[in-house]
Amino acid sequence: MGVLIGAAGPPIRLLSVATKLVTRDSSRTANNRAVHSTVFRKVLMAVTGLFLILFLLMHMFGNLKLLIPDGGLEEFDEYSHYLRMFLYPVLPPKFFLWVFRLVLLLCAVVHIEAATRLTFRDYDARMGMGRYLKQRYLAGSFAARTMIWSGIIILVGVIFHLLQFTTQTITVGYLGSVAPHLRVILGFQHWWLVLLYAFWVGLVSFHVYHGFYSAFCTLGARVGAFSAKVIKICSVIVALLVFFGFMASPLAILFGLVTA
Amino acid sequence: MKLTLKIWRQARGAAQGKLVDYKIDNVSEDMSFLEMLDQLNEELTAAGEEPVAFDSDCREGICGTCGVVINGTAHGRGNSPVPTTTCQLHMRSFHDGDTITIEPWKAKAFPVLKDLVVDRTALDRVIQAGGFISVNTGAAPDAHSLLAPKLQSDRAFDNATCIGCGACVAACPNASAMLFTSAKVTHLLNLPQGQPERFLRVKNMVGQHDAEGFGNCTNIGECSAVCPKGIQLESISTLNRDLVWSLFRKDGFTVA
To answer: What CATH topology corresponds to B121-135+146-246?
Structure first.
């Protein structure tokens, strides 16, 4: 700490030398501090984020069943049913489904909790908006700097998506409750819904592009220049896979390649 | 060379400052950036105005004392491929008639003392929390009693080149000092002398880093882009890996 003088007005620091660990909280052990550190939160974000990406890819491959010529639609419904009945004779019906849903929810909650805390912390650390009057970025992508915003829009999108296809609270192109393949086909015959989903899926792949890369960096997989390149290329591949994989069916429906 | 300078002026003890415009003439392109500021200060002093306060010491890029944000990049390197500190930036990097914006490092953990001078003792405290090795005094050990593999000693040395200027914090959109902290952690964990305190070190240094109010790393890479010593993001990855490992070891236990 520095020597503080000046009775009136703000204290004036004459000499600034680090003489002791003023900000160290001695009520905690080193291990406790490490568990509560930003790095550990980031590790939680990385693990949950990668699990969510894994889920996204599974979901995407399932969706592609719609594109199978001759009987793809029935197969899509069967697949949708099978997800609910997965491991049925071994476990009670829909048991696996609910366990999986709860795990996904837990991942999302942990991910969002950490993101919220870290974002507020960062905002504080850089002293709010308008830090520099002139700012020029040299490295890093736009995606990397706007993760929280893409994340928030994705969350809103997920809620809409579940209301539309799972609970059918919001229906597009039909009323009531219909077979899974019809929910998709009747909905995506509307160009504006395809556009909305293109924007949303675009943001998801945007988020995945930096998220995938960042997760592996956080987990310590970036050991040198070569591994950095490998992680970067993989993140581009995964992001493109997510975008085109998810947008393939809506576009095929919109252009009349897949009809009910 | 004729230049317009927009310099951050903040009185000692003031909570806020503002950019003030200055005109400067007869700047040689062979001058360093700090020599240009020296000239400005001479002129300000002659005119009876308060000179601009800025930090500098060795002026050869090895001490880490100087550092300001120039035109929005820490140390003002811009997209030049040569990593430099502010003192090694020369006026030939600018053109006649340019407007140059000069601001101090800005982060909550780096309070501005005056004008372009910031208090970086937060970094010292991060080092004090564990950025050292403990050696008992006595007779020097034989040179070959501790073997350091070549590649690891190279990596340790690369990370030991960090001069603690704070540009990584200034450039980081989250004002995180992870590059600084990880450089010291990576330096010491690659050497046999660093092993006994290895896991306690990473826990303590990360704990202190957070306690100082720095942000967290989101792997953007702005820090290593401005680092005058070329410390890479791999160091941060190494720190993360070591912190996770350290959680499976009781405080004070080592590798074995």
So the answer is: Fumarate Reductase Iron-sulfur Protein; Chain B, domain 2 (1.10.1060)
Cβ neighbors of A26 (< 8 A, separation 6 or more) are none
Nearest Cα residue in chain B from A10: B13
Top CATH class, B3-103: alpha beta
State the Cα angle at A76 between A75 and A77, rounded to 5°: 90
Strand pairing partners for A69? none
| Side chain identity, residue B122 | A
| Local confidence band at B252 (pLDDT 50, 70, 90 cut-offs) | low
Chain A partners of B109 at a C-beta cutoff of 8 Å? Answer: 125
For residue A109, give Cα distances in angstroms to A37, A43, A48, A113, A170. 18, 14, 9, 6, 24
- Tell me the ipTM for this assembly: 0.89
Beta bridge partners of residue B101, listed in sequence order: B6
How far is it, in rounded angstroms, from Cα A205 to Cα A196? 14
Give the residue from chain B lying closest to A212, CA to CA.
Answer: B219
- Domain ranges across chain B: 3-103, 121-135+146-246
* pTM of the predicted model as reported, rounded to 2 decimal places: 0.91
